[in-house]
Amino acid sequence: MKxxxxxxxxxxxxxxxxxxxxIRAPKGLNEEVIKFISNIKKEPKWMLDWRLKAxxxxxxxxxxxxxxxxxxxxxYQDLYYYSAPKSSQGKPKSLDEVDPxxxxxxxxxxxxxxxxxxxxxxxxxxxxxxxxxxxxxxDKLTEKGIIFCPISEAIQKHPELVKKYLxxxxxxxxxxFATLNSAVFTDGSFVYIPEGVRCPMELSTYFRINxxxxxxxxRTLIIADKGSYVSYLEGCTAPMRDENQLHAANVELxxxxxxxxxxxxxxxxxxxxxxxxxxxxxxxxxxxVCRGKNSKISWTQVETGxxxxxxxxxxxxxxxxxVGEFYSIAITNNHQKADTGTKMIHLGKNTKSKIISKGISxxxxxxxxxxxxxxxxxxxxxxxYTQCDSLLMGNKCGAHTIPYIKNKNSSSIxxxxxxxxxxxxxxxxxxxxxxxxxxxxxxxxxxxxxxxxLQQLPMEFxxxxxxxxxxxxxxxxx
Amino acid sequence: MLEIKNxxxxxxxxxxxxxxxLTIKPGELHAxxxxxxxGKSTLANVLSGKNGYEISGELNFKGEDLKKIxxxxxxxxxxxxxxxxxxxxxxxxxNIFLKTSLNAIRKSKGEKELDTLAFLKLVRxxxxxxxxxxxTLSRQLNVGxxxxxxxxxxILQMKILDPNFSILDETDSGLDIDALKIVAxxxxxxxxxxxxxxxxxxxxxLLDYIKPDFVHVLSDGKIIKTGCGELAEELEKTGYKxxx
Lengths: 478, 244
Prior knowledge:
The complex is a heterodimer of chains A (478) and B (244).
Chain A: H1 3-11, E1 22-24, H2 31-40, H3 45-59, E2 83-85, H4 100-108, H5 113-118, E3 122-128, E4 131-135, H6 138-143, E5 147-150, H7 151-157, H8 159-165, H9 176-184, E6 189-193, E7 202-208, E8 219-224, E9 229-237, E10 244-247, E11 250-255, E12 260-267, E13 279-290, E14 296-303, E15 308-311, E16 314-317, E17 323-332, E18 337-340, E19 343-346, E20 352-361, E21 366-375, E22 383-392, E23 398-407, E24 413-422, H10 425-433, H11 438-449, H12 451-454, H13 459-472
Parallel strand pairs in A: 3-7, 6-8, 7-9, 8-11, 9-12, 10-13, 11-13, 12-14, 13-15, 13-16, 14-17, 15-18, 16-19, 17-20, 18-21, 19-21, 20-22, 21-23, 22-24
Antiparallel strand pairs in A: 1-2, 3-4, 5-6
Helix pairs in contact in A: 2-3, 3-9, 7-8, 10-11, 11-13
Chain B: E1 2-11, E2 14-24, E3 29-33, H1 40-48, E4 54-61, E5 64-65, H2 71-76, E6 79-82, H3 94-108, H4 116-130, H5 147-161, E7 165-169, H6 177-190, E8 196-200, E9 214-219, E10 222-227, H7 229-238
Parallel strand pairs in B: 3-8, 3-9, 6-7, 7-8
Antiparallel strand pairs in B: 1-2, 1-4, 4-5, 9-10
Helix pairs in contact in B: 5-6
């Protein structure tokens, strides 16, 4: 490797690609490709029809363009919509049958699937391009009646659940990228927690984009039945490529009476190089509905990667006394852009929502918090508390806060606090004087700034996330 | 330990230190006194390596030219500055900050890093020695600390990091008598034949508790008088004006 390349790898340590033979759908977006995907996944006819319905809809709608970060037009006919390692065709039944090359890839990413199964208490579903390649701890979960499997498997084995809930939170008509995902989604995780069950371990999905010119369209569906609890975490990485790659996922969460879902994301897609070349377009629709009374959905996201992050994990607070939370850290460096936030739709009585957003901008990056708090007429005695803090590093970056607040009844209370600050030279000096170098000092100060959000992450991932926060800002202070 | 010859320092083209000479040997404690604006804090900043100053003259620490060494490296070489106004760092636990700091210093010396248990033991030992409530250390760094708590915290940090050369920049300002005694205790209990101190102060009061080997009077960027402990008492009576 040339010195320059070595430097590059140091910056984004997940930037390698795995040389593995793959099966691809023909390039382009058309009915044939959708049939190809549905066929290769051995889907029932209702699923294909559902996809086609979305596809026809897609023809009549346009991409939204109200977001702050603009991007060059995407040629949807120039993408591959399905790519899978050839070895995954025969569907491995246990980890021993998984292609060693894939296991090696995940080990390199810090997710040693085999050891993980023995050592840590985290069940992992590993998604490689368009397919799930391995799911750990299946047996242990099955004992409790928990279903944790690739969504393609759920479509075959649990059609009644999938039919009932898929698209019930994000309808196929929702918006361009959600509709696109509905037509071409390839894999993702499916979780069902039965009534009264507290999931005994963290569930985790690790998404990896490997193939070039490929979009990743994953679909995740999590259902927490009455009185159940689950904590779920997703992580994402991709190789460094000069082209921009599209990641348009849909995630739907459903919490029934007294159920709680905690959903955490550590997103570290390839952000592009320091000149803004390449990187992932992370255009994701995440939405949860607190359908039952006293239910709770909590989103935590640590967004450090991607060239453009454009997402608003949201909560529809339908059940009375339901609670929605959104904790976010969005870090943008170099030429990265983020337009992210949440929507809290209060429908039920006594519903509560809390939004804590920490935006950090460095280099020439641009970071926007955009959020909607919508308290409807019948949502009496509801409450929202929003806190948006922005931290700027250097003088070439931007931070913006765009809160939309609607309150249609007089018994509800909405609070919004926002601050924007620059990283303080004196604080850096103080840390330096105690022997910390510039990067350690920045890492420490920024981690302090993000503390309220980092605290929300499951323990197993909090340490990783803290390191990631430091690494993402390396070289950002002169 | 420290050798300063003809040190000149300016900031934004304004000259502040104008040819300062000072030699501090291992084991010595020097007090630096002087009126407001005489350059005392600038001296502390320049010694610690703060950015933004134009510097000329000689500045040697243990035989090395300090001018080329950045702040964090100077700290790892054993220079400690107790800040006049310690900074607040929200969200950062004081213990974690101190542990990170201590381990950065230990690592550069080739010593083994302390794990959490060993670190907490050290903290407990040092804070009880000084009579500081160790609970302050589980709070966010200096956030919501009173003036006195901040200063005591600086001294505790000094005790834990165990530097060879400590600079106290008006650590005694604004302290009540109990806090002042803690600061003095922190310094006195650290003194040995290898460690040196530069104590910057406005008042003679602190020197009732800390006995300096030398007292200097800084005025308009230069040391205009040097003496032993009695000089401070004299100044207390006569003020700085007479010296000019």
